[in-house]
Specification:
The chain is mainly alpha-helical. The protein is built from six helices and six strands. The protein has helices spanning 11-14, 32-36, 122-128, 134-232, 235-267, 274-305, and strands at 15-16, 19-21, 43-45, 66-68, 89-91, 112-114. Helix 5 (235-267) crosses helix 6 (274-305). It is rod-shaped and about 195 Å long.
Length: 306
C-alpha cells in the first residue's frame, strides 16, 4: 500500500469483517494486488486520499459491493469500470469527474450513487440530480444507469451504422471491382472479336485477290488463245499455196531433169540410143511447133496492121 510517506500496517490488519477502511491514508494509488488477495473485503472505503486515477486492473476487483471514492482528485474512471457488476453502492462525491465511461451502463446491480460536487457535463449533472438524501441517491443510480444505457445504445447504433456503412462500402467496392472485371472481360471479348473479324476480312480480301488474279490469268489465257485460233482460220489457203509451191518445185525438177536428159541426148554419145533418139525427135517436133506458132503470130500481126 503506497502512502505519502513510508509503509504502514498490512491490509489484513485493517479488515473488519467484510469491510476494509483505507480512508485518510494519504494514498496516491490503489493497492490492487493486495486488495485482490482479500476477496472477503466486499466493502471498500478509499475516501479522503490523493487518488488522481484508478489503474485498469482495479476493475478486476469484481467482488466489491460497496465502494467509496469520495473526496479524491479522480478525473476519470477506467473505461472498463462496468466490469464491477456486483457493485451496489458507489460514492464519487467531490472529485473532478466530467463524464462517466460508457461501460458504466453495465452496473446492473447499482442501487445508490452520489455524483455531487463534480464538474459534470451539464446533461449528466441534470440526470444525476442533487443526491441530498437516500431517496435522491437511489434515484440518481437509476437515472444515471438509464442515461448511460441510452448513450451505450446510441453508440452501439452508431457503431452498427458505421459497420453497416463499412459493409455497404465494401459491397460497393466489391460491386465496382466486379463491374470493372466484367468490363475488362467484355473489353477483352470485344477486342478478341474485333481481331477475329479483322483476320476474317484479311482472309476474305486475300481470297478475293487470289480469285481476281486467277480470273485475270484465265481471261488473259483465253484472250491469248483467240488470236491464235483466228490466225489459224485461213490455214486452208495457206496449205493450198504450200501445195502449189510443192507442185511447182516438182515440175521444175522434172523440167530440169528433162533438160539434163535432153542435153545428155544431144551432146553425148547417148544420142544414138533409142531413148535419146525419141527424145531428140520429140524436141525437134516441139521446136518446129513453136516456130510455126511464132510464124502464125507474125502473119496475124501483119494482117491486123493492114
Amino acid at each position: 500500500m503506497s502512502r505519502g510517506g513510508g509503509k504502514g500496517p498490512s491490509l489484513k490488519d485493517k479488515l473488519d469483517g467484510n469491510e476494509l477502511d483505507l480512508s485518510l491514508c494519504d494514498l496516491n494509488e490503489v493497492p490492487v494486488r493486495e486488495l485482490a488477495a482479500l476477496p472477503k473485503a466486499t466493502v471498500l472505503d478509499l475516501s479522503c486520499n490523493n487518488l488522481i486515477s484508478l489503474p485498469s486492473d482495479f476493475c478486476s476487483l469484481m467482488h466489491l459491493v460497496k465502494l467509496d471514492l469520495s473526496k479524491n482528485r479522480l478525473q476519470q474512471l477506467p473505461l472498463d469500470f462496468g466490469r464491477l457488476v456486483n457493485l451496489q453502492h458507489l460514492d464519487l462525491l467531490n472529485n473532478r469527474l466530467v463524464t462517466l465511461p460508457v461501460s458504466f451502463a453495465q452496473l446492473k446491480n447499482l442501487k445508490w450513487l452520489d455524483l455531487k460536487d463534480n464538474p459534470l457535463d451539464p446533461v449528466l449533472a441534470k440526470v444525476a440530480g442533487d443526491c441530498l438524501d437516500e431517496k435522491q441517491c437511489k434515484q440518481a443510480a437509476v437515472k444515471v444507469l438509464q442515461h448511460m444505457k441510452a448513450i451505450q445504445s446510441e453508440q452501439d447504433r452508431q457503431r452498427q451504422r458505421k459497420l453497416q456503412a463499412e459493409r455497404e462500402m465494401e459491397k460497393k467496392r466489391e460491386a465496382e471491382q466486379r463491374a470493372k472485371e466484367a468490363q475488362e472481360r467484355e473489353l477483352r471479348k470485344r477486342e478478341k472479336a474485333e481481331e477475329k473479324e479483322r483476320r476474317r476480312r484479311e482472309y476474305d480480301a486475300q481470297k478475293a485477290a487470289k480469285q481476281e488474279v486467277e480470273k485475270k490469268t484465265k481471261k488473259e489465257t483465253v484472250q491469248t488463245r483467240k488470236p491464235a485460233s483466228s490466225s489459224r482460220a485461213p490455214q486452208p489457203p495457206r496449205h493450198k499455196a504450200s501445195w502449189s509451191r510443192s507442185v511447182l518445185r516438182v515440175l521444175l525438177l522434172v523440167l530440169l531433169c528433162l533438160l539434163c536428159a535432153l542435153a545428155a541426148c544431144k551432146l553425148t554419145e547417148l544420142r544414138h540410143q533409142p531413148l535419146c533418139i525419141s527424145v531428140n525427135t520429140l524436141y525437134e517436133d516441139v521446136v518446129a511447133a513453136l516456130q510455126n506458132h511464132k510464124t502464125l503470130q507474125n502473119m496475124l500481126q501483119q494482117n491486123s496492121q493492114q
